[in-house]
Amino acid sequence: MREILYDPAYVVPAVPPGDTGVGWLRATVGRFCEGADHVRRRGLAEAILDGIPPETLSGRRGHPVAVLARAMGAADPGVAPLVEDVAQACQPGTGDADLADPAVERLAGETAFGAGPRRRPGRAHALALVG
């Protein structure tokens, strides 16, 4: 496996397009693409992480996913189990998409942007950036 990570000739296998759930997630993140799409998508993720100094995370209590999510502005206390539900099916051909799909929808929707009269603006913009 280590050899593949450092092999400049290795090309990440493409994933099929997806409109919802874990299929949509795979089709829109940097992990499953190459070239300019990978650079742009990875850059978006790095920009978010660059705004969170690692030393501000050290010593915080709680599940590491929840700690990072709070630092990113997501206050949903149920975020860690949702991420676990997605992670178990993120790699194509693995996990239970029926478990992951609603978790993706919640993470990309209410958890990230809120709901009702207090929802945060920008969901359409964020989805356009990753799509």
Structure description:
The chain is mainly alpha-helical and 131 residues long. The chain has one domain. Helix content is 56%, strand content 0%. It has seven helices and no strands. The protein has helices at 2-6, 21-28, 35-50, 64-71, 79-90, 97-113, 123-130. The protein is globular and about 45 Å long. The relative contact order is 0.12.
Helices and strands in order, then pairings?
Elements: H1 2-6, H2 21-28, H3 35-50, H4 64-71, H5 79-90, H6 97-113, H7 123-130
Helix pairs in contact: 2-6, 5-6
Q: In short, what is this structure?
A:
The chain is mainly alpha-helical. The protein has seven helices and no strands.
What's the helix count? Answer: 7
Oligomer: single chain
Proportion in helices: 55-70%
Reported for the largest beta sheet, the result is: none
Helix and strand element order: HHHHHHH
**Tertiary shape:** globular
Calculate the terminal CA-CA distance, rounded to whole Å.
29 Å
Low-confidence stretches: none
The share of residues in extended strands comes to under 5%
How many domain units?
1
| Radius of gyration from CA coordinates | 16 Å
Task: Give short descriptive properties of this protein.
about 55% helix, single chain, about 130 residues, 7 helices, mainly alpha
